[in-house]
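Much of what follows relies on a compact textual record of a protein's fold. An example makes this concrete, so a full record is given next.
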Amino acid sequence: MNDTDLTKLLQEANDKVPKLTFDETMQIISSDKCIIIDVREESEVQASGLIKGAINIPKSLFDNNFSSGLIESHIDDLDKTKILMYCAAGVRSAFVGLTLVNKGYKNVLNIGGYSEWVSNGGPTI
């Protein structure tokens, strides 16, 4: 895939998977049913931490033999649960979000990058 194709794919991802601000994300976390998924690789999570309440499902698992059980085992009501995705900077989470939308998932939102979360004072573990 060349740079032009990647740019088009990222634009499609950003069009189909809304990017939330920190404040919008905090409002959803505090008032709605949601799951927070960190798509960074395990080594990244070990090096820097995790958003409080998030689960780590690396992008590589979504890329190789994606199984709906990766997410659905953590959700009791798929139609009412918002799926909040993040990575280091918000690009991989946009791509994974697009994968989910293309597989029929609804309420998929990109909350951006872990560094942005930390700089805004978001809770981490």
